[in-house]
Amino acid sequence: MPTIAPDPKIFACKQSEALAKDIAKAYGIPLGNVITSHYSDGEFQPSFEESVRGARVFLIGSTFPNSDHLMELLLMIDAAKRSSARHITAVLPYFGWARQDRKDKPRVPIAAKLVAKMLETAGATRIITMDLHADQIQGFFEKPVDHLFGSTIFLPYLRSLNLDNLTIASPDMGGSKRAYAYSKFLECDVVICYKQREKANVISYMELIGDVKGKNVVLVDDMVDTAGTLTTAADLMMERGALSVRAICTHPLLSGNAYERIEKSQLLELIVSDSIPTKPHDKIRVISCAELFADVMLSVNANKSISGKFLM
Length: 312
What we know:
Elements: E1 9-12, H1 17-27, E2 34-38, E3 44-48, E4 56-60, H2 68-82, E5 87-92, H3 111-122, E6 126-130, E7 145-148, H4 151-160, E8 166-170, H5 176-186, E9 189-199, E10 202-209, E11 216-224, H6 228-239, E12 244-252, H7 258-264, E13 269-273, E14 284-287, H8 290-301
Parallel strand pairs: 1-4, 4-5, 5-6, 6-7, 8-9, 8-11, 11-12, 12-13, 13-14
Antiparallel strand pairs: 2-3, 9-10
Helix pairs in contact: 1-8
């Protein structure tokens, strides 16, 4: 008779507790009990309040700033390792520090590589994440990485809109591969924004490659931070005759005055996942990734293939 994989243990870092509860519910098991003690100087200590000896442990935590979020995940991995967990899977719906994936000028770190090594050194035996800023970050790990696609949850919603004259757009040259993947699946055209930055988060110039006149445009990107690129691109496209502009961004960092920019822009809708908690906003639609992660975690625990989980 085939053996049935025992239920794993699922624990949440504080910053991803709401998403982790939804994942555990979709998986069909309760969220594990973990408490965090705080010292007056800001130091903290997570503690599992149940045995994890010999268990497969899933630790859910997005590592968006501040750095305490990454530190909490590292401490929980270390605690699981020292408590004799059999497998320790770090589930990072959003993999932070990923924009620093190369040396783009002298004397700077490659933070994404450093984070990968810290996760492995802490004791992670597997990584599950979604829409990495750059695919090659998978190569920074020596452990297995399951890289999920946000398109799995966004494409059904996009199809439900039944948009005529649909065009997919990339807000920069680096995202063209993602845009072409969406366009191939939806059988529509692609346009690309060419931009130059004065410095991080500041655009000095933007031009459009392609025609958007009479089109319903959907911008696709892996993250939205200050929303400067998205809102500038949306306003430019409307000036060039687009009928409407929406945006799909998997990870809603939404820092600085991003909410204000979105409100004032000609973006009709910003569609995001719940990989990072967001504030309610009339223009922002949140589509949960909980079932996607739960399905993949079920397959991982049962040692089954996850290739069928991807729409593209």
